Predict the structure.
Amino acid sequence: SSTDDLSDVKIGVQDNFGFEWTKYDRFGWDDPVYHIAAEEAPFRAKSLMSPDEFQGKLVLDAGCDNGRYSHWAHEYGAQVVGVDLSEAVDAARRNTWDSPNIQIIQGDIFELPFNPETFDAIFSIGVLGHTGDARVATSNLSKLLKPGGSETVHVYGKGNPVYEIVDRVIRSFTKRLSVRGMSRFTSLMLGFGNAIQAVRLRGLLGRFVRFESHPHCIFDWYGPPKVSHRTYPELENWFTPDAMTIEQTNEPAAHRSGISRLINKMIGTASTVTVKWRKSNPS
């Protein structure tokens, strides 16, 4: 049944992400390249929120990983609740322990312990595609949002047909690996990526195979047991306009026409899909 499928997904997420954020607990904090200052601009781009939108607000970081995005929301003046299903919460607590207005809790996005219309803003970055049902998860989160509040969902985009086939083939292998086996696979992929970079083929091959320059990013990409890649038209139809209106997306202007979307779908590289909705005020 679908309920059993979701239970299996949750167990896999807890195992994989728990291991990942224990091993890479300081990724995005004090990594030489991916340090906390370098995460500020990506956070703004992925949340589609400006610093003044956080000031004095109660904000939910849905799928907080190791807390680096909760940190930036807090820096901008928000009171932040970060929630995650896995043991990533332990890393998030350690990393944000000196921030008095960040609370980290372990919980299930499908069954969060909050009253309806609790939060002024909600963001979920790179997480909902691993839940088994991103649309339902997004809808559930919207119920926790106050009228007039914003919800931003950042998920992985769909690549060209060859990319998607290759990705499914690799995942059919990696999803059966133990976390230790996944760590060995990560090392192999890192070495392969560095080798093709050395002969300047990474840009070309990267259209068809996902490569990353940091072991955490490889583990994060291929480790989860479930993933869904999305398109803008899909997300744009997740809510009716009378419930949630689309305020902003990160779709490149060049891709918004039908022809450009089709060309990108056939030969383009996989990107991300980010949509920010505003909850309607009751009339």
Notes: The two ends are 39 Å apart (CA to CA). The chain is about 40% helix and 15% strand. Residues 269 and 281 are 38 Å apart (CA to CA).
